[in-house]
Amino acid sequence: MAQDSVDLSCDYQFWMQKLSVWDQASTLETQQDTCLHLTQFQEFLRKMYETLKDMNSNTIFERFPTIDQLLAKACWNPFILAYDESQKILIWCLCCLINKEPQNSRQSKLNSWIQGILSHILSALRFDKEVALFTQGLGYAPVDYYPGLLKNMVLSLASELRENHLHGFNTQRRMTPERLASLSRVCVPLITLPDVDPLVEALLVCHGHEPQEILQPEFFEAVNEAILLKKISLPMSAVVCLWLRHLPSLEKAMLHLFEKLISSERNCLRRIECFIKDSSLPQAACHPAIFRVVDEMFRCALLESDGAPEIIATIQVFTQCFVEALGKENKQLRFALKTYFPYTSPSLAVVLLQDPQDVPREHWLQTLKHISELLREAVEDQTHGSRGDPLESWFLFVHFGGWAEMVAEQLLRSAAEPPAALLWLLAFYYSPHDGRQQRAQTMVQVKAVLGHLLAMSGSSSLSARDLQTAAGQGTETDPRAPAQQLVRRLLLHFVLWAPGGHTIAHDAIALMAHTAEITYEIIGFLDQTLYRWDRLGIESPRSGKLARELLKELRTQV
User: Fold this and answer.
1) Which residues make Cβ contacts (< 8 Å) with residue 495, sequence separation at least 6?
2) Closest by alpha carbon to 70, among 54, 49, 50?
3) Cβ atoms of 111 and 102 closer than 8 Å
């Protein structure tokens, strides 16, 4: 590696001297010498780019203080520009010098200079000497007219692409596939230049009629990278076209979102919501093809994590953002719900898509019973492993898990006999793999715990140990078991909602949080509960204050 660096430095000095000689003289001998060295110089440029691409602009100038002079001399040499791939590699090298976020006037001036050089390269092979003489005769220096020339060229090409898109099968007026491919290749190093945005957008939305994609993969990758890093801003229609035409870009966008979520603070749904909305994925997912890919990646993450609560919560926030985007795009669905959720009952999807805040509170119980009936029909009336796998119904229900949390609250706030439909809904949500018999046992266990909690809710001498005893009756000893998770949820809802629960909340949670895993589970529950209360506008001052105190206390412990 060190030897390569020494070799490059020596080559750099050699070619700097060569370019100076070629620049100062235009004799036949210098032209012949230039032509003899074109292949070697192109190879030097390629090595130079491999070195520059891993550095930022400041580092490049620290190592190669005269790099701008070397590239400028090469750019103004018509023999170099005309040879093989030298023009393209020069563009790549120049783009490495650009300051993405200029901090001072020197860096801004450098960016303007680079833009002018890039404009010259792009136009050098299209405009002859007479054009140059004409512009000079009008009193315009290259630095004045090249940026405007680039902008006009981009707008002209974008207009031609739009016409190409409209003409469809009119082959006489259509741009050739080869030219489209060439345009996309030329755009790769220029994508982050603001003036090139219209051309990038036009290329993305211009669909050819060839059986295979004609735009270069490098173009899609470069555009996607620039979007993810916020270096360019394109209309949503162009982003949707990108992700529809190039699946790896959509997958990378999802992985980029996952990386941000993993590196962020655990169990903070507000921050998760910001990341998700900022990713543009919920808006793009209004197209069913994109939604299906995104949903499948969420499914894989859920399976890989063995149903981790954090993944479930993220899916629910994403679904909420997606439903909001769907509502903004069009009040009437452009696509049937079946195209988004093809393996589940459309009537179930319609009911779940209702936002609880749009349903009157007095109708919540009836809506929950209806959801339970539809799910039970889908789950227990079909053979496991078929196309209508019960897990598909569960995965759909997971998207709208806010309804499940409302079940526990409804059960604990009513003194009436717990409806079997609601007990079944809770048992299914927390343990979808269970068969009918196992689920019936869970329902009996939950009903017993509810009976104890409701009996204790009016007690004046309630203790945390009483809650622990109620939770331990008939439950499994493994705290990670789904039934135990369900019972913990009931206890947590109880301490937040029941008047007697407020007085023992801190002690009760201290007894429950005896492992780090359970502590994170409780933190997640409190964060989700506050997030949901805020959305639905159902937070009571006392319960909200208690939940925030508990959340703050637990976060200091982990």
Assistant:
1) 467, 501, 502, 504, 505, 508, 509, 546
2) 49
3) yes
Is residue 351 domain-shared with residue 451, that is, in the same domain?
A: yes
Q: What is the pLDDT of residues 497-550, one digit of tens each?
A: 887 788 888 888 988 888 888 899 999 999 999 998 888 777 777 888 999 999
In the chain, the number of structural domains is: 3
End-to-end CA distance of the chain: 44
219 within a domain of the structure (yes/no): yes
Cα 493 versus chain centre, distance = 33
Flag whether 213 is in a domain.
yes
Going by C-alpha positions, the residue among 527, 521, 528 that lies closest to residue 551 is 527
Query: 485 in helix, strand or coil?
Result: helix
Per-residue pLDDT band at 149 (split at 50, 70, 90): low
The DSSP secondary structure of 71-131, one letter per residue, reads HHHHHT-HHHHHSTTHHHHHHHHHHHH--SS--SHHHHHHHHHHHHHHHHHHHHTTS-HHH
What is the pLDDT confidence band of residue 8, given thresholds at 50, 70 and 90? confident
Kindly list the distances between the CA atom of residue 315 and the CA atoms of 36, 269, 277, in Å, as whole numbers in the listed order.
62, 11, 13
> What is the model's pLDDT at position 148?
57
* Alpha carbons 160 and 150: distance in angstroms, whole number: 15
Note whether 312 and 272 are within 8 A (CB): no
- Helix or strand run (H / E) with residue 247: helix 247-263
**What range does the domain containing 92 cover?**
1-125
For the record, the structure tokens of 192 come out as: 């982050």
What's the DSSP call for residue 265?
Answer: -
Which band of pLDDT confidence, cut at 50, 70 and 90, is reported for residue 275?
Answer: very high
**Got the DSSP string for 423-437?**
HHHHHHHH-TT--HH
CA distance linking residue 450 with residue 493, whole number of Å: 11
- Tokens 């159902």 -> residue: 538
How confident is the model over 342-362, as a mean pLDDT? 86
Same domain for 393 and 522? yes
Label residue 346 by pLDDT band (50, 70, 90). confident
Q: Are residues 56 and 120 in the same domain?
A: yes
Specify whether 109 is located in the same domain as 147: no
Looking at residue 386, what is its pLDDT? 43
